[in-house]
Task: inverse folding
DNA sequence: TACACGTGGGG
DNA sequence: TCCCCAAGTGT
């Protein structure tokens, strides 16, 4: 049986849309037109959507946008593309520079993988971002969503793009649920494939419009149904807006290893030289001197009052992940 | 399959 | 204040 990532876009098995999707499937062209029109006049002007944006620019944006809001990505993306206009430019620098330039976007391993992807593009693709889904999927940090998104948005290919926005729109519009299932299913991929316009250019617009609708109107909390161009076709509205059938479990943060890792990374990002282990374990004041430049993030780290073993786990984890390395007895970003 | 992985804005 | 959540990936 096909895995969730399967991109088979064959004909819709009869009964696939039985759970509330019949009304939508009945008039797909009208749905395509409605979202096309809405997108044409409501889409945000984002730099990675500009005609002159390169595939590299699209790839960088897609990785930065993983689990990260557009407004925070914007300035960092501009900075990255100015400094590294093509993959080979990034590949020529130490991975640590990518991590440092990542700033406070979060999930810094993405920066590491983007750097590794740039190296792979230089070494295995003659410096040009590949346009085929399967080749994109081979790149570090590129999963099924990002591979499909880059193939579609940078190369105009007909791909089944499924992100959290698209899943939510499909859940409401077609399936009549308040939220998509907790994990991406093969059925969701089949549904998405069945809704995709046949024409490649139209499919690209469709993918972008559904995503934009999910981001701007059909939001997770307090959807703006009054502004929705397809509210009259919405299975969830028709069903009387039934509540979610499960409660999403929150991401814990306070007191976790992740919080400590984040604080350590904040220190390493601003450090000019390797940071001695003692500085992580003992407050600078106790050591009798003020470390140069890293005082503020170091103070933030110590305010967490992490247990020694928790600090050890964080440092070991960062070393294991390649986000930090030991140099002359101190911790630093990878060179 | 479920969990780990950063960060900060909005309700 | 606290909690939710944002264009996911890798294990």
Result:
């Amino acid at each position: 049986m096909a895995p969730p990532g399967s991109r088979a876009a064959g004909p819709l098995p009869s009964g696939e849309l039985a759970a509330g999707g019949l009304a939508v499937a009945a008039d797909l062209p009208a749905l395509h037109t409605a979202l096309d029109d809405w997108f044409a006049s409501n889409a945000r002007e984002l730099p990675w959507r500009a005609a002159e944006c390169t595939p590299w620019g699209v790839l960088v944006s897609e990785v930065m946008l993983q689990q990260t809001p557009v407004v925070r990505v914007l300035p960092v993306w501009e900075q990255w593309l100015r400094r590294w206009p093509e993959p080979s430019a990034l590949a020529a620098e130490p991975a640590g520079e990518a991590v440092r330039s990542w700033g406070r976007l979060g999930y810094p391993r993405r920066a590491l993988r983007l750097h590794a992807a740039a190296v792979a593009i230089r070494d295995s693709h003659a410096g040009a971002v590949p346009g085929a889904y399967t080749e994109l999927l081979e790149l570090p940090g590129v999963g099924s969503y990002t591979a499909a998104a880059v193939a579609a948005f940078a190369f105009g290919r007909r791909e089944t793009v499924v992100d959290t926005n698209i899943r939510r729109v499909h859940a409401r519009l077609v399936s009549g649920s308040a939220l998509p299932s907790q994990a991406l299913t093969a059925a969701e991929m089949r549904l998405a494939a069945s809704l995709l316009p046949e024409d490649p250019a139209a499919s690209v617009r469709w993918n972008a419009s559904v995503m934009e609708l999910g981001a701007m109107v059909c939001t997770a909390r307090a959807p703006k149904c009054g502004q929705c161009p397809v509210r009259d076709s919405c299975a969830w509205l028709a069903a009387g807006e039934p509540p979610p059938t499960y409660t999403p479990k929150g991401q814990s943060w306070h007191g976790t290893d992740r919080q400590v890792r984040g604080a350590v990374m904040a220190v390493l990002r601003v450090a000019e030289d390797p940071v001695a282990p003692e500085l992580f374990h003992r407050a600078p004041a106790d050591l009798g001197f003020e470390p140069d430049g890293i005082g503020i993030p170091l103070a933030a780290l110590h305010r967490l009052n992490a247990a020694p073993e928790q600090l050890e786990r964080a440092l070991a984890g960062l070393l294991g992940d390649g986000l930090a390395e030991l140099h002359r007895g101190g911790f630093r970003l990878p060179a």
